[in-house]
Specification:
Layout: H1 6-17, H2 25-30, E1 42-44, E2 51-54, H3 77-87, H4 110-118, H5 127-156, H6 166-174, H7 183-194, H8 204-220, H9 226-234, H10 251-265, H11 267-272, E3 275-279, H12 283-300, E4 329-337, E5 342-351, E6 354-355, E7 362-363, H13 369-378, E8 386-389, E9 405-408, H14 409-415, H15 418-428, H16 430-437, E10 459-461, H17 463-474, E11 478-483, E12 490-491, E13 495-500, E14 505-508, E15 513-516, H18 520-530, H19 533-540, E16 553-558, E17 564-570, E18 575-582, H20 592-606, E19 621-627, E20 641-647, E21 659-665, E22 681-687, H21 694-700, E23 721-725, E24 731-732, E25 735-742, E26 747-756, E27 764-765, E28 774-783, E29 790-800, E30 805-814, E31 820-825, E32 831-832, E33 839-847, E34 852-859, E35 862-867, E36 872-877, E37 881-891, E38 896-898, E39 902-906
Helix pairs in contact: 3-7, 4-5, 7-8, 7-9, 8-9, 12-20, 13-15, 13-18, 14-19
Length: 907
């Protein structure tokens, strides 16, 4: 503070020392008998009754030593010498602080390191903090002396994970107390204190290499004698690692909490200890969940316990499958409260009664199909939307029973019919769907080449993430929990309160935060499918393990090989997810009842004393009758009618076109014409399938409508009496120029008539009687606009002078109704992030009663492609920037419809 007046200097000093932490805290923290740091960071259950985990080597409770060799337990003189030489060579004459490098904010002296670590850990880095650190370092050196400062330093230094203090390090790595350390062992611990991650347990070779470098460094700086160097460098260092046996009933949960504490309080402060954490874990539930998983794993291998110790097992259904092939099976489960995001119980990958402490992602497979559904509903699809469960064109031979043909999206989602859902995902864009997954809690990394097969393979989600996904539907679109400062997204809640051992409050969870992920209406549609017990009975039968006797949403899932299986579901009170998987990728398939049985048992246990709760239908949801297989408005041909739910404005407006009635010549099986004798004509209803479904239809024995018309022709056919346009059996609309020939000997007049239906009961004149013959010319102009769409007979009659008639009749279909077109993706105003393949799949919903001839895609007023087959999607590479899109549809009669220009942006 050179150049400052005494008053100014005093004001600055007063500002620096305002609310300065008391140095007496060191006595509280590091008292050898009852110091708070003698207690490691400790995690309790939600009731603050049971210790879940302590962050220390359970073999060696912490103890604080002295450097005085006259005491029973003391630090090795070599350790004291080398630690001082490495950290502060002039320590024994130091005032506790350094005046060097005032532009640096890092501590330089041993006293400064202590202050930085224990007193100022909550203050943000700044020059003021740096000066406060020096003031405090000077104070503790002056008040307590250098010996005490060094002892505190040695007793609080970090030597690796859960290894605080040199004595803990000596016993963990060498199996001996710190008083018995040799030169080399002492030097190695000094080097480990500089880089705790490179410790003998986790990186033994790196630790030995760092030892050599430290010895060379101290010798070169004359910090140790040549004799000491020679003895230390030639010593054979042998590690005697004392592995931490700190296993709990909640290893995975404990590790997640510890990682959360690292993020909140800092790694060093958490490792130091003296912290008490009240978690969200229900220890009783945790014990029951783990026990139930253990029992099911043993049952898989044919071991049936006479009297299992856990209550939920009384609800476990019989498991009639067991084999030695399932000896490598693992299991995992989680229970959350969807109303506040708390994790109530979590068992990580469990095998042979050992739980992995790491929460690892697994192949989520078809358990993620609700994510596809909610994205589809957001883009105009509905639970009633028709999808086709048919093999892909590349499938080759296939098992007919594996495919259902035409179904509603509700049926596909409820029963895990993957083929239509994969096709839907391709239409919407797999990368787009995965990008939306983050808002639902899914953040596990997935490689770029996995997104196309995410419903079948790829380590795409961990069990907590799947729990958060399903909890979002349990709350009809809102996620509850705690907001992450970086991502700004809601995460599951694990910590309720953090305090010091001496009851100083550090953190307490305030009001639960909420974040709307999707609208209640969109979430309700997905939820309504997940709770649809009737829909999933098609594959699960009745009764099944997803029916728990109260309103709930649930589904099973699996990867492609069926060696990883899931069951996930919820009520308003609880969300439970269960996973079973084989360790080997090519191992035997698991049946859904393995995970489903545990899910059923846990849900029954959880709700045994809970009141029944249900969900209310949000405003904006309506119900409408539709044809069960097409999802369109019922017709008399529709074989089954169901009631479906819709968001207002998305109800179907077109009638069912999957089932149509045709008049057939019952003897030939061909389409009847006006020339077919009436007594041979009968009406039959057929399923009309698109070209891509023909292979499935033929394999499944679906009777298809005939394509050819009856060969019976008019007995009065004449080259002098015929209609050349329109052609027979064609589709027509608008004004039709009827052309042909009406001439011949004894010509008197002709007329053109039209009758409705296959065998008209009455005819009406298209034009007045004409007295002039026509050869290959215009016969009449037929205005069809006022007619109802349908089948018509068009008849030409030529009258001779002798009053005889010659007739020529053809069949045509009048269609004056244009197709309906709706752009599904992109939506107006969308901001689309390009995926790795830079392709965006455009998708439109196009419908017409007679059939679609083609669909045109116009981007920025340029035609970029056409589609002729349903579903109408078009993958295209679209440049970054703002764009407009128009879709034009043409039916078989030539009617056309265009969408309004839609604007979107690609980035």
């Amino acid at each position: 503070m050179f150049g400052l007046t005494p008053l100014a200097a005093g004001l600055i000093y007063a500002n620096l020392t305002r609310n300065l932490p008391a140095i007496e805290n060191f006595e509280i923290y590091l008292n050898p008998k009852n110091g708070t740091l003698l207690t490691p960071t400790t995690i309790y259950d939600r009731n603050e009754e049971t210790i879940i985990y302590q962050l220390q080597n359970s073999n060696f409770p912490r103890r604080f030593l002295t450097i005085d060799p006259n005491n029973e337990e003391f630090f090795s003189p070599f350790l004291v010498q080398y630690m001082v030489a490495e950290y502060e060579p002039f320590f024994w004459t130091s005032k506790g602080y350094s005046t060097n490098r005032l532009n640096q904010h890092t501590p330089e002296t041993i006293a400064e390191i202590l202050v930085d670590r224990l007193l100022l850990w909550q203050e943000k880095d700044s020059f003021n903090r740096y000066l406060r650190m020096k003031i405090l370092a000077a104070q503790i050196t002056n008040q307590y002396g250098r010996v005490q400062v060094l002892e505190w330093f040695l007793n609080s230094q970090n030597f690796g994970p859960a290894t605080i203090g040199a004595d803990s390090a000596a016993r963990t790595y060498f199996g001996k107390p710190a008083s018995q350390l040799t030169r080399a062992e002492a030097a190695l611990l000094v080097s480990v204190s500089r880089t705790p991650a490179l410790n003998p347990s986790d990186a033994p070779q790196a630790a030995l290499q760092n030892l050599k470098q430290l010895l060379l460094k101290m010798k070169a700086a004359d910090k140790i004698s040549a004799e000491d160097y020679a003895k230390a460098s030639t010593e054979n260092v042998t590690f005697n690692i004392q592995k931490n046996e700190n296993q709990t009933l909640a290893n995975t949960f404990a590790r997640l909490v510890v990682n959360s504490l690292y993020k909140t309080l800092g790694y060093e402060r958490v490792e130091l200890g003296g912290i008490q954490v009240v978690s969200t874990l229900d220890m009783k539930l945790q014990q029951e969940l783990r026990c139930t998983l253990d029992v099911q794993l043993q049952r898989l291998q044919g071991v049936n316990l006479a009297v299992p110790e856990c209550l939920p097992t009384q609800f476990l259904p019989p498991l009639n499958i067991h084999s030695q092939e399932f000896g490598n099976t693992q299991a995992s489960a989680v229970v959350l409260n969807p109303q506040n995001g708390e994790i109530l119980a979590l068992v990580g990958d469990l095998s042979n009664q050992q739980e992995n402490s790491l929460l690892v992602p697994h192949q989520a497979g078809s358990i993620l199909t609700p994510l596809v559904a909610v994205n589809a509903f957001a883009r105009g699809f509905t639970p009633a939307s028709q999808v086709w469960d048919i093999p892909s064109p590349q499938a080759g031979s296939f098992e007919t029973s594996q495919y259902q043909g035409p179904i509603r999206l509700r049926t596909a989602l409820a029963n895990n019919y993957i083929a239509p859902l994969e096709e839907l995902m391709a239409q919407l864009g797999a990368q787009t769907i995965w990008q939306s997954a983050r808002t639902f809690g899914l953040s596990s990394p997935i490689s770029k080449n996995q997104t196309k097969s995410i419903l079948e393979e790829g380590n795409s989600a961990n069990i907590v993430e799947v729990g958060e996904l399903f909890s979002t539907f349990a709350t009809l679109g809102t996620r509850y929990g705690v907001k992450d400062d970086n991502s700004k997204l809601i995460e599951a809640l694990m910590v309720k309160k953090i305090s010091s051992v001496d009851n100083q409050l550090i953190f307490e969870q305030g009001p639960i935060e909420a974040q709307s992920v999707v609208s209640p209406q969109l979430a309700f549609l997905v939820h309504d499918v997940l709770q649809d017990e009737y829909a999933r009975r098609k594959t699960l039968g009745y009764p099944n393990l997803l029916e728990i006797g109260r309103p709930s949403g649930a589904k099973n899932g699996a990867n492609f090989n069926q060696n990883e299986i899931w069951t996930a579901g919820y009520t308003p009170q609880y969300t439970t997810v269960v996973w079973f998987g084989q360790k080997e990728p090519n191992s035997s398939a698991l049946k859904s009842q393995v995970a489903g049985g545990v899910w059923y048992a846990i849900m029954q246990y959880l709700h045994r004393n809970e009141a029944v709760q249900t969900w209310s239908k949000p405003i904006g949801i309506t119900e409408k009758e539709v044809c069960a297989l097409s999802g369109l408005l019922p017709t008399r041909q529709c074989p089954e009618i169901v009631v479906e739910k819709f968001i207002d404005g998305t109800q179907p407006v077109n009638s069912d076109n999957l089932f149509r009635s045709y008049r057939i010549n019952r003897e030939t099986g061909l389409l009847a014409t006006v020339f077919t004798p009436p007594e041979l004509v009968e009406e039959r209803t057929f399923m009309v399938v698109p070209d891509q479904a023909l292979a499935w239809a033929q394999s499944a024995g679906v009777e298809l409508p005939p394509k050819n018309y009856d060969a019976i022709q008019s007995p009065n056919f004449s080259e002098e009496v015929n209609i050349s346009y329109p052609s027979i059996y064609s589709f027509v609309h608008g004004e039709i120029k009827v052309s042909g020939t009406a001439s011949g000997d004894n010509f008197s007049s002709y007329r053109v008539q039209v009758g409705a239906g296959l065998n008209p009961q009455s005819w009406f004149e298209v034009n007045e009687m004409q007295n002039n013959p026509v050869n290959n010319g215009l016969l009449a102009t037929w205005q069809t606009e006022a007619l109802e769409d349908g089948l018509y007979a068009l008849r030409l009659q030529v009258i001779r002078d002798n009053q005889q008639f010659e007739t020529f009749t053809i069949q045509v279909s009048v269609d004056n109704t244009a197709p309906t077109v709706k752009l599904i993706y992109p939506a107006a105003g969308d901001n689309i992030t390009l995926g790795p393949n830079k392709i965006i799949t455009l998708h439109a919903q196009v419908e017409d009663s007679t059939g679609i001839a083609r669909v045109e895609w116009w981007l920025d007023e340029h035609l970029i492609g056409t589609s002729e087959l349903s579903p109408f999607s078009f993958p295209s590479k679209i440049a970054v920037g703002k764009h407009s899109l128009i879709v034009k549809a043409y039916d078989l009669a030539g009617n056309s419809t265009s969408t309004e220009s839609l604007n979107f942006e690609v980035n």
